[in-house]
Amino acid sequence: MNLGFGAAATLTGLLIGVLCSLPPLGLALKHRLYRPALLTLAACALGGFSAGLWGGALMLVLMSGVVISYAYVDREDPFTSRASIDEVDFSESNWEFSLRKMAALGRTVRASAHALVRNKAGFLGFLGLVFFFVMIVFGPLFIEYDGQPHYYDRLKPGAKTLFQGPSKEFPLGLDWQGRDVLSHIVYGGKNLIRTSVEAGLMTTVIAVVLGSMAGLLGGVVDQALSALSNFILTIPTFPLLVVLAGIITFDNHTYLALLFAALYWPTLMRAVRAQVFSLRERDYVQAAVALDLGLPHLIFREVLPNMISYIVVNMIFTIRGAMYALVGLVFLGMVPVQEPDWAVMIYIGRTRQVIFNARAASMLLSPIIAIALFQLSLVLFTRSLEEIFNPRLRRGL
Amino acid sequence: MWRSYAFRVTVQGLLTLWAVTTFTFVMIRKMPGNPVEVVIDQLIDRQQLSYEEARQQAAGLFDFDPGQPLIEQYADYMNKLLHGDMGKSISSAGTPVANQIKRYLPWTLFSVGSGLIISFTLGVLLGMAMAYWRGSVFDNVLTAAASLMYGIPDFIIALLLLLVAGVQLKLFSMEDVLGGVGQDVHAGLNLPYLKSVVQHAALPVITYVWGTVGGWILTMKSSTISTLGEDYIMVAKARGLPERRILTAYVGRNAMLPLVTRLAISIGFVVGGSVIIEFIFQYPGLGRQLAMAIGTRDYTTMQGIFLVIASAVVFSNILADLLFGMLDPRVRVGGEE
Amino acid sequence: MKRYLHLLLVAALAFAVLGMMAPARTTTAQEAPSGVFSGAFDYLLPPEHHLNSFARGGLGTNLSSTYRSFVELPHAFYMWASNEYVPLLGESWGFADDGSYYWTKVNPDAKWSDGSPVTADDVVGTYTIGRILGWSQFKYIDKVEKEDDYTVRYYFIDQPSLVAERLILKEYIVNAANYADLIAKAQELIDSGATPDDDAWSALADEIREYRPEQLIASGPYVYSLDDVGDAYMTLHWQPNSLFSDSVNFGEIRIWKGETEATTPLVLSGEVAHATHVFPPATQEAFQDAGIRLITIPRGYGPALLFQHDHYPWNIKEVRQATALVIDRAENAFLTNGMGATPTVYMSGLADISVPTWLPQDVIDQLDRYEFNTERAEELMRSAGFERNDDGIWADADGNTVSAEYKFPAEFNDFAAASLNAADQMNEFGFDITTRGVPWQQCAEDIRNGDFELSIWSWASGSPFPARQFWNPLQRHNYVGLAEGQKGINFPMQFEWNGEEVDLDAMITATGAGLDIEAQKEMAGKVALIINDMMPFVPLNYLVSVEPFNEKLVAGAPADDDPILKNPSGSDHFIIYDLLTGVLRPAE
Question: Is the ipTM of this complex over 0.85?
């Protein structure tokens, strides 16, 4: 039995969720924290139901933190205590240490949740993402996948195609084989979104790390990395992919994401590099350099927070780029034509020229609009991210 | 130091070009099919020739020997290239590649170039304004519009433009918008010709701007937001400098830094044209020519166009590095540590 | 010296004819007819576009077989319904009584656009250059000789052939004066006994390809110069000197540039009157909604499901037959291209339209039509030792499932749709098929190399002869017809059939040998029965070209039952004949 993502949207998943909620739930009830208790139960059950053991476990940790942060609110952090130094007991047991860390985690979760709700646009974006998540995970519970051609049962007399425009029975109409487009939208987003989000993350990580290295270290490292990025930037992508598709084919989506990342990191890398050149001259970075705090510290503590919103927006564009690049890879045969998939819908819709026919256009426009809305949700959601990660912005301007 | 820097950058650029050219040379010849085979397939399908007949007839169409060793072909090519000769097109025997580039490059530079300028300018201005009035209705509406626009691929935009504005609303006649210039005007510096050129470029440029401006808006906005949080902006505000001055002199300048790199890369790729737009609007640009050369496996034409694109990208990246120094005097790109 | 005299004679004669014609020409008031016929084709722009008829980028590339005859006439036009040639540039033609050569006679009234007559020298000159370029006619003939001013003889290498006749009659004749230098050089080279392997030969071929005539001299009623080639469309202008100048009703032919996606808005907006592109079903529907008539004519071929016979279990006949039975061809044809595809009926390896003409009735009655029948397929599978396993997939006694990857050309929307639907249907029966779309060049190469498990490419061809239809794909994409080391579908062509050793390769070739039609029919019958039983490939459907024809712009299009619509779109398009002979005219 698969207790991981396989348990999603099943009774098993729900059970896992409820089981996961027990420890924090007990703790909350013990401390008579009824609202957090209720939240805990809901969050864990939902987590387990939507992502099996993974979701359950994640929620278990997060919600435990939240409960602990309520329960142990009085426990002062010895390092920030205002009491006289003699009175503070610096000795801390492992148990106390982990409690303190859990409470800190819980506070972060709570602060983030507040930040999330406070910004309306950001919250809207969050809701959009939740919508896609719910559609992918729970949609199959309500809508049956329509995979087989319907030549005899849905052919209208005199019609030249099986396409149909939106109707009450089929809100998004029928595709070229007379199949329900809505069901393909519901079932077809999972792989595309997962692969392109992976691709976006990988591209961004590579670009940020290499860009920061080039900018911070300069000299030979910069020259080498610049040359490499120039090289990759100028290699004609299309013929390269044609050649690659003839040699290798993928069934594993992570490799696809990796391939995308390997080809598309230079643009963002050069932007990061440029920004780092500028940041490097700032006093606080100079100070960090002088203190010899190490490269990881420089990248993740000094450079990244200063560019975070730029990087996040670029990551979103990379995700969008990866989605359309995957459509191209279907054309090239690097991935099999496996339905249901938005990319396959776009590929077939494009070659069958459905755009010229109002009754048929749905199978092409639906996935494209879905991608556009997904991107919109991400962009709006960055508002909340900015509030969470860049607290200075909250102060105004 | 300046001199050694310029020298180093040039050498590095040339090396990159050589590496890319060599890599591309091998790669495109590893693509399935070759110019002769592509035509053999067409001849068999269209004229019902047997494979042998088609092979013979196809061979008669080309001055190209697929059997020649790769290394010999490479030596030939490099030798000619060093003498400034890009060779002749394979699938259009006797047409020099240089002539093809001369014919199509100006159209691409004009249409995509003006598209990029409009898109970039609009994006930077709007993005900055949105960051400044962050959270306002103006910002929210534009953010939504920009991300939706940027989510829709250009072929949809181009076809819908033709279908809705051209076929249904009849806002223009096809004759006036397809192609690079009308057939009834004479090339030269005369008003009807220039008018026709601008008129024909309108749809490609609109499509290009529509498809890219969202990206510029959102990146500029995010970049500006990053800058707004900086300490020196706070200091400037505390000093009571007028907001307009803060926005232009402090924020704008610094927010532009990452965008300039992006712009440089985009400028480089202007040369490559925008293939789909050129196909749909029959715009005589280099991008479409490249796609056709890829389709017919016209190695020499492909190689020539790729070389032009690569040179443009490398050159504009060098230019961007130099530009940083002007935008942010603190930066000395590639300067000695 | 003799040749010189000869030339003088021709010149004298030409003058005489000219003199005779001159008054006639002035009487037919030479005014261009009004009206524009607008078609569409993805021609090239200069500098790739030029006026050399022999090189790529010339007339053949830019005008396609549909429009080229308006500028350069071939000898004749083939009518598929009646199996006969009707004259264009030629007046008469035939095989020599002893079958040693073929002869054609140019219509003595034919003239070039510069007013000079079309003569045997033009024909011979055309072939002289064609010989240097390795034209396929020279597989059948070796010498092309002038018999008199208008008559030319083509000597066969061994036996006479109907295929050669077709190649000869359909060849576009080029103005020799425009290529005089090259023709002289070519003749000199051939006379010197040089062979195609000589450097001088390929050097001359290069010279021919790189030659750029300054003007086009046309035998058809239209002519153009490079100034007429615009970015969005090119224009062919009427000229008064052609055989057909008086009969055509259009003063201009406008050809809009673009492939399918770019042409569709032009058809919808009423700019293009007729287009030959492959329009997908959704577009066909949109045309109909816009009130544009759709004319359907055969495309000459259809998609065939190709088995890799080295891939188990496609080497088992029963499995192939079962495959043919579980794909509902009516559904498959409809999804392939709407009204643009018809389900295969006879499953004989011969296009259904050619079956009544070429197959004896008793053979037709014996053909298994493989009508959709899953029970029959299940029986066949069981008889070959297969059963459904726990997952519902057919597997043999050792547990090997019937599974394969189905590779198809991603850009060809009809082939792609045929493949996707066929795979869906096979999976529904209990095969395990995954599909993969690849660039067409990749697909073609993989099929030739045998690097596939299931794939799709064409069957039959736009040729009226059974030899040329059976050839695709059994010889074309099989080891027998491919280059060394390429195996294609690798279907063994020599095997025992009904207790008799057969050599299918030789039999197919024999259906096209000589001029004895009855013997050819008998042989075609045998081949059809073998293909029908062995099912070496599944002919899924036969494609129909669905061509929008805007009757608000052009009148006179043939009615749906007009026999000329039996002509396939690729090789003998009805537009050619109906436009030249004045059947088509501007709509009121």
Answer: yes
